[in-house]
Specification:
Blueprint (H helix, E strand, L loop, with lengths): L1 E5 L4 H8 L6 E3 L11 H11 L3 E4 L6 H6 L1 H22 L2 E7 L22 H16 L6 E6 L2 E2 L6 H11 L2 E5 L3 E2 L2 E2 H20 L7 E3 L6 E2 H15 L7 E5 L19 H7 L6 H10 L7
Parallel strand pairs: 1-2, 1-3, 3-4, 4-5, 5-10, 6-9, 7-12
Antiparallel strand pairs: 8-11
The protein binds NADP nicotinamide-adenine-dinucleotide phosphate (NAP).
Length: 301
């Protein structure tokens, strides 16, 4: 099976490559070779390659910057997936698009189900929600559209909350972390595994002429605030000796944090249906975080 991975240099992309099955021919262009902004070139690249699948892990992921660079975020997160879907509707392959809990407004106090209407409250969430919409529009049939939403990605490399907190704890006497935004921290290692299993399951369904769900939710189990997550990172880092000293962590509310970006207060995704469909085991985010630390490439500061 020929699979094109977009976003191969990102924190998730790198784990997707590391965990790829042996029988896959994985093509991993850099952003220079495949730029989602350059729609004409992307379209031609896909038609020439004719991949069986595209995994799109490429995105404009800076939520704060998306407010200022709205047009660029829209080009990459909405028009990018649109061109992937348009090209695949011609060449015939399938798309697995990574999406986000930020397509929801966070006003409900119970987990969001896969069939709920999206309701983004910031530019990043809006651009990702539009990307989903275009995919459904251009790839409506035959298990071709796969949107896998996730939340709060952390992992052993790249630009993520866990690594930032480790650095700050090591360098400062006190750090302030938001305690009134809740979601499910999810490791890139566990998400990469879920991605490969989603592809396998979709192929099994397709062979049996069964319809596979277009939208799936994958996160590690359990909930946390950013503050809970930071405190756990501190505990693990001290236990494992990754840092020798750690500053105090002080909880603050969102309105005490200098940001113009609105973020959902409770963006927990309901993952029950997806885990059952795909056959994924339950695992608490703390256990998954520990696995990152015990991985062959442990978190480094
Ligand atoms: N991070 C989170 O907490 C989180 C939560 C929910 C969902 N997600 C979603 O998960 C996916 C992976 O996120 P991540 O955390 O791995 O992101 P990341 O570490 O920021 O990586 C983003 C990737 O996208 C690539 N990219 C950026 N602009 C591009 C363009 N114009 N054309 C092609 N590629 C481009 C980057 O390439 P360069 O390295 O060259 O910049 C990089 O490989 C994204 O779809 C994101 O929306 C993330």
């Amino acid at each position: 099976m020929k699979i094109l991975l977009i976003g191969s240099t990102g924190q998730l992309g790198r784990e997707i490559i590391k965990s790829s099955p042996n029988d896959i021919y994985l093509i991993t262009p850099s952003r220079l070779e495949f730029d989602l902004k350059k729609t004409k070139e992307c379209y031609e690249y896909i038609l020439n390659l004719s991949p069986d699948w595209i995994i799109n892990s490429g995105a404009f992921t800076n939520v704060e910057k998306a407010e200022i660079e709205e047009e660029l975020a829209y080009k990459i997160n909405a028009l990018g997936p649109q061109i992937l879907a348009k090209a695949l509707s011609k060449s015939g392959g399938k798309l697995l698009q990574i999406s986000t809990d930020y397509v929801f407004n966070g006003q409900q106090n119970y987990p969001y189900k896969t069939d709920q209407k999206v309701s983004p409250i910031n530019k990043y969430g809006f651009s990702k929600a539009k990307g989903e919409e275009y995919i459904k529009q251009y790839l409506p049939s035959n298990n071709q559209s796969n949107i896998l939403r996730t939340s709060w990605l952390v992992g052993p490399n790249g630009n993520n909350f866990a690594l930032k907190i480790m650095q700050l704890l090591n360098n400062r006497d006190e750090i302030k972390v938001i305690c009134d935004q809740i979601s499910s921290p999810t490791t890139t290692l566990s998400l990469a595994d879920a991605i490969w299993k989603t592809i396998k399951k979709n192929e099994e369904y397709t062979k049996k002429n069964k319809s596979f769900p277009i939208i799936n939710h994958f996160c590690n189990d359990g909930l946390a605030s950013w503050y809970d997550l930071a405190v756990t990172i501190k505990d693990i880092c001290l236990e494992t000796g990754l840092i020798k000293k750690a500053g105090e962590i002080k909880p603050i509310q969102s309105n005490e944090y200098p940001s113009k970006t609105q973020r959902p207060k409770y963006s927990v995704l309901d993952t029950f249906k997806t885990k059952k469909t795909i056959g994924l085991k339950n695992s608490h985010w703390r256990n998954e975080l520990l696995k990152c630390f015990n991985n062959s490439s442990p978190l480094k500061i």
